Amino acid sequence: MFNEIILIGRLAENPKFKETPTGVKLATLILDVERPYRNNLGIRDHDYISCVLWKGIAQEVMDCCEAGSFLGIKGRLQSKTFESPDHLSTTIMEVKVEHVEFLDKYFMKK
């Protein structure tokens, strides 16, 4: 089996930081990735991809990035299924980030 994804894009918004009850650091972010082709109106569409970062990589992104930062991300896809109170099931995909490259030093926080 093979599950690996590489994305290059900009942060759509500032990353969100959480800490689990056991003290593990967790950050979530939305990566804005431009599609490699134009639609029928000649405009490039974008995909907004949910990403989850853990431990040291979460802290590093929180310290260095803000909305608009240009990132390269390597990770794996993972699905999560939720059931609503009316018993409807919803499945979402998110990227579990394993490595981040900061591609735009202009957006680095001091």
From TrEMBL:
What are the protein's UniProt keywords?
Answer: DNA-binding
Q: Which InterPro entries has this protein been placed in? A: NA-bd_OB-fold, Primosome_PriB/ssb, ssDNA-bd
A Pfam family of this chain: SSB
Q: Which PROSITE patterns does the UniProt record give? A: SSB (PS50935)
Could you tell me one molecular function GO term of this UniProt entry?
Answer: DNA binding
Q: Which CDD domains match?
A: SSB_OBF
Q: What is this protein called?
A: Single-stranded DNA-binding protein
